[in-house]
Write a structure and sequence with these properties.
heterodimer; A: alpha/beta; globular; B: 145 residues; alpha+beta; five-stranded antiparallel β-sheet; 5 helices; binds adenosine-5'-triphosphate; binds magnesium ion
Chain lengths: 114, 145
């Protein structure tokens, strides 16, 4: 599924990576636990999280996450966005909560890590 | 004998959450530049990040030594800190002494040391209460996932 479609269904704002919306993602890792993301993310996954510190982007980079969505209307700080830009990880932000974001994307055919 | 091709050391400061992860990020860059396969990089960098975060969260300071040979990636993280009383317990998935603040930051799931062990071909941890902890992990270049 294209990031651009995900952006539309979750009514996301694009915080960085506007020019990467054509990228495809197939699997999703959703967690507020960084070690959990490192343990379960498939390479190239979309990461959904409510954690907005620099380590969230660090974790995404290390887990080879392809793109990130911050949920519940959360916004990462400038440092996090800067690191995402450097690491070529597009960041989207939605006001939708974790359960609904995951449910909507799952219905559209995206898969988890199991 | 394995031939040592590259050695680098990094200092890690305890409680410095702003910089936390920079060492692991640096190691990812080095390994990517060398051209190591992506699954090996992934394993080495997960180990590096979890070990680095543990120093940041629990210790006063630490030294991270990265050694690349023609056979393996060796990571050694030695800290000056409180040490670990019960290593078996610390290695149990889910065990944590992280504070609420650390948990709010997304850490403290008790998965770091298990993640390190799982991703390493050789893993060793030594600790002395009141002195510090040393984690050593090796990823062999000829190993798969
Ligand atoms: N370098 C260290 N110095 C002192 N204690 C440590 C150190 N590393 C780990 N520990 C102890 O072992 C416990 C388990 O560590 P582990 O990395 O597995 O989980 P965590 O750090 O608590 O959570 P997570 O890694 O999921 O964020 C820690 O809570 C801490 O009590
Ligand atoms: Mg840890």
């Amino acid at each position: 599924m294209k990031l651009a479609e995900i952006k539309d269904v979750l009514r996301c704002e694009v915080l960085t990576g506007e020019d990467s919306l054509a990228m495809e993602v197939e699997t999703v890792v959703a967690s507020d636990g960084m070690s959990e993301i490192l343990a379960f993310a498939h390479p190239g996954a979309l990461m959904i999280t409510g954690l907005t510190n620099v380590q969230s982007v660090r974790t995404a980079d290390i887990a080879n996450v392809r793109a990130m969505i911050y949920i519940r209307g959360k916004r990462p700080g400038d440092k996090a966005i800067e690191l995402a830009r450097k690491s070529n990880i597009p960041i989207l932000a939605t006001s939708v909560g974790m359960f609904d974001a995951c449910g909507i994307l799952r219905e559209l055919g995206l898969k988890g890590g199991m | 004998m394995a031939e040592e091709l590259l050695r680098k050391t990094f200092e890690i400061r305890g409680r410095d959450f702003d910089k936390a992860g920079e060492t692991a990020g640096g190691i990812k860059e080095i390994l990517t530049e060398i051209g190591v396969g992506s699954s090996l990089i992934h394993r080495a960098v997960v180990i590096a990040f979890e070990a680095e975060m543990n120093v940041v969260m629990y210790a006063a300071e630490g030294t991270f030594t990265f050694v690349f040979t023609d056979e393996e990636i060796k990571l050694e993280i030695a800290d000056k800190g409180p040490g670990i009383e019960d290593l078996d317990l610390a290695l149990t998935e889910g065990f944590t002494t992280a504070t609420d603040k650390m948990r709010e930051m997304g850490f403290g799931f008790g998965m770091g040391l298990p993640n390190i062990k799982k991703n390493a071909d050789v893993f060793n941890i030594e600790s002395e209460v009141g002195a510090g902890t040393t984690v050593s992990a090796t990823v062999r270049l000829d190993s798969s996932a």
